[in-house]
């Protein structure tokens, strides 16, 4: 048989029917649900008198609308003060009850951001097809799974048929070779990749991340990379199975045990691209070239190294890009050629499905330990990805490290990643954020997001502006000076 | 889904690359558990000068006069002309719901983001991919002529300009059929339910650890 890519294998293992017109039905093993993209799907099922095809494939939790302060969470759903948000969360609870779908309720310790919860429970396994009505579902591909973000009509389709109607994508491989420098994390790797290939670089492709630098990442780092495949335009990101993958999965609540475990591991070992497998597109990056990254604009591709400057639209390679850059600088309140390290911050957010796992919190805590958040920072918050991550962090004393330094320690949820709850930026505020999107208004109306790694976010909180986390010298900028001061 | 019929519609130009789904419909409107009513909040942050809230009466809000869809000549636009990578970002189907609810029926751009592309077709919205040069030409023509309208003919896969130039486009056969016949794809898939059951049984036998309800 011809050499196959990992994607080809996963596709073939799940192909139910291939139609002449190019569309195919693929079987779905795991369906994660949350409150924002599912209500209309359940409503659709009800209207058509249909039932979910296979209950045990589904797992639900509310994450986008949940409040993150300790006091509000103590009240359970009642702590959700926005009545519209409350209805959405209650609708998920009701739907799960009506259809008998397992849901981790608001104060279940297993509740959290869907993409943190699935892997943590072992509900995401290698070789699975995973879908969720959320574009960051690509996260689960870190396990050698085929994970797609889907829309609400597709959520309904999967509930009703256990299949996704789709078309085979092209194969793309992004290789990162060599060793990452100290202080350079998975987040920097994926931002550098997006900076290189652009936000449409992976459109129409399933991206497999490979190369020695990717192999060297922990499972959590791999999830961070796959999480942002969508920011490179790819609906699917994945990484081959190896010992790191298998070690992570052992002994999780949903993972197989005993003989089933042995059989599963033998099967999972096949989940790699065969030597000589052909990709439609291959991009290679040298790990040694990657610096800690900071996004300066309103698209994740508008990113540069910490040693860099905000670009000058006059130097953009084409008109469309020049217009985009001008508009982005205007929205962000930045000046062409301004040093990244001169960008002053108002808020810092450490959390989101990209960077809210235990290792992310450890990295940030290592930087924050014994330091103080700069006076100029109005709010620095740490939001763990799940109740279990929170527990673990507290056992390790990380919560104290953060609160001693002046960070707020919150309850799990999406929080200020998209500001559907009360955690938001005010207009004009600059935020160092470990999330994944810096779109206009994403973190609050008029808010200005800069995407960074957890360590970079913590360092920025302490300095009040961006600093190179690799340098010990955390310099403070002179007071009373805004981001426009450098213009004069 | 409504059947997609041939129509002639005014074109509005949105001269901006990488229009993301957060821009198409900001998150505060995603809290609705309904499928309709998103049109008034389409492009909310571009369209109004204040911050919109769900359930608000938008007729009282200050409009941004510079935003293209607020200009009188584009009031009844049914076709949106856009730049590359339209619809990037999240999987929120609220984006096509808002576009459709606003009255748009087709979007022309050099490229679209994958998830958005799927979601749009499932809601009766036709996405037409044309090369950058053609899109550029259309931008110039639309801006130069008040009331510029295109005839959009999905059956024959072509759009026709006011001066009679026909421009062909590609669309895959399945999506085309669903749009033209207004088909519900769950119904179509369920015709294959025996094949799904058979696949499932084999899959379960081969990889039992994927099924939690195993005896
Ligand atoms: S953390 Fe952000 S990106 Fe992730 S699922 Fe929640 S809202 Fe979406």
Could you walk me through the main structural features you see in this protein, from its secondary elements to its overall organization?
The complex is a heterodimer of chains A (488) and B (215). Chain A contains 16 helices and 19 strands. Chain A is α/β, with parallel strands linked by helices and 488 residues long. In chain A, helix 2 crosses helix 6 and helix 13 packs parallel to helix 16. Chain A starts with 5 loop residues before the first helix and ends in a 25-residue tail after the last helix. The model of chain A has no long low-confidence stretch (mean pLDDT 95). With 215 residues, chain B is α/β, with parallel strands linked by helices. A seven-stranded mixed β-sheet of chain B has the order 4-3-2-1-5-6-7, sandwiched between helices. Chain B is globular and about 65 Å long. Chains A and B meet through strand 2, helix 2, helix 4, helix 6 and strand 8 of A and helix 4, helix 6, helix 7 and helix 8 of B. Bound molecules: iron/sulfur cluster. Iron/sulfur cluster binds next to loops of chain A.
The most extensive interface between chains reads: A-B, 85 and 62 residues
Helix content of chain A: 25-40%
* Helical run tally of chain A: 16
Number of helices, counting only DSSP H or I runs of 4 residues or more of chain B: 8
């Amino acid at each position: 048989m011809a050499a196959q890519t990992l994607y080809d294998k996963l596709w073939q293992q799940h192909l139910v029917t291939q139609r002449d017109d190019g569309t195919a039905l693929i079987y779905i093993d795991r369906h994660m649900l949350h409150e924002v993209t599912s209500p209309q799907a359940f409503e659709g099922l009800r209207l058509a008198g249909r039932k979910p095809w296979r209950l045990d494939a589904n797992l639900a939790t509310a994450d986008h609308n949940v409040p993150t302060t300790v006091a509000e969470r103590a009240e359970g759903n009642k702590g959700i003060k926005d009545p519209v948000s409350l209805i959405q969360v209650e609708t998920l609870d009701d739907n799960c009850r009506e259809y008998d779908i397992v849901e981790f309720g608001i104060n279940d310790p297993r509740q959290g951001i869907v993409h943190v919860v699935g892997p943590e429970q072992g509900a995401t396994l290698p070789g699975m097809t995973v879908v969720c009505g959320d574009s960051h579902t690509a996260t689960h591909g870190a396990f050698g799974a085929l994970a797609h973000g889907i829309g609400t009509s597709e959520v309904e389709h999967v509930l009703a048929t256990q299949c996704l109607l789709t078309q085979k994508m092209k194969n793309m491989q992004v290789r990162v070779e060599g060793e990452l420098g100290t202080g350079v994390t998975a987040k920097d790797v994926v931002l550098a990749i997006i900076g290189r290939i652009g936000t449409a670089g992976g459109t129409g492709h399933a991206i497999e991340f490979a190369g020695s630098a990717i192999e060297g990442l922990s499972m959590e780092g791999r999830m961070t990379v796959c999480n942002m495949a969508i920011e490179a335009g790819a609906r699917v990101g994945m990484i081959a199975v190896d010992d790191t993958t298998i070690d992570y999965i052992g002994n999780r609540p949903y993972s197989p045990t005993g003989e089933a475990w042995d059989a599963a591991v033998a099967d999972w070992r096949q989940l790699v691209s065969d030597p000589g497998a052909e990709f439609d597109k291959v991009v290679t990056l040298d790990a040694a070239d990657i610096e800690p990254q900071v996004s300066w604009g309103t698209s994740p591709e508008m990113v540069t190294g910490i040693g860099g400057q905000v670009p000058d639209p006059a130097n953009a390679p084409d008109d469309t890009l020049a217009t985009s850059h001008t508009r982005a600088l205007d929205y962000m309140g930045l000046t062409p050629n301004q040093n990244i390290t001169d960008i002053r911050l108002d808020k810092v957010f450490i959390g989101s499905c990209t960077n809210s796992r235990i290792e992310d919190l450890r990295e940030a805590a290592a930087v924050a330990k014994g330091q103080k958040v700069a006076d100029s920072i109005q709010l620095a918050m740490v939001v763990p990805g799940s109740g279990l991550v929170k527990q673990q962090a507290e056992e390790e004393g990380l919560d104290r490290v953060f609160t001693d330094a002046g960070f707020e320690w919150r309850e799990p949820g999406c929080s200020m990643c998209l500001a559907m709850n009360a955690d938001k930026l005010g207009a004009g505020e600059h935020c160092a954020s470990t999330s994944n999107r810096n779109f206009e208004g994403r973190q609050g109306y008029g808010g200005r997001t800069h995407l960074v790694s957890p360590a970079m976010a913590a360092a920025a909180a302490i300095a009040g502006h961006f600093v190179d986390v690799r340098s010990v010298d955390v310099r403070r900028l002179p007071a009373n000076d805004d981001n426009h001061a450098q213009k004069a | 889904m409504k059947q997609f019929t041939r129509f002639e519609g005014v074109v509005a130009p949105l001269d901006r690359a990488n229009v993301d789904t957060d821009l198409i419909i900001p998150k505060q409107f995603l809290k609705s558990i309904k499928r309709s009513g998103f049109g008034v909040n389409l492009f909310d942050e571009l369209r109004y000068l204040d911050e919109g809230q769900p359930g608000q009466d938008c007729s009282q809000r200050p409009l941004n006069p510079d935003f293209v869809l607020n200009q009188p000549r584009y009031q009844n636009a049914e076709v949106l002309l856009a730049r590359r990578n339209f619809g990037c970002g999240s999987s929120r189907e609220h984006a096509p719901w808002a576009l459709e609810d606003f009255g748009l029926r087709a979007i022309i751009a050099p490229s679209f983001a994958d998830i958005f592309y799927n979601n749009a077709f499932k809601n009766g919205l036709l996405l037409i991919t044309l090369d950058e040069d053609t899109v550029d030409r259309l931008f110039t023509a639309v801006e130069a002529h008040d009331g510029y309208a295109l005839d959009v003919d999905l059956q024959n896969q072509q759009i026709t300009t006011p001066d009679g130039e026909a421009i062909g486009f590609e669309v895959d056969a399945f999506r085309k059929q669903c749009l033209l016949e207004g088909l519900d794809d769950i119904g179509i898939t369920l015709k294959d339910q025996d094949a799904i059951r058979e696949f499932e049984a084999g899959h379960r036998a081969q990889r039992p650890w994927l099924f939690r309800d195993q005896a």
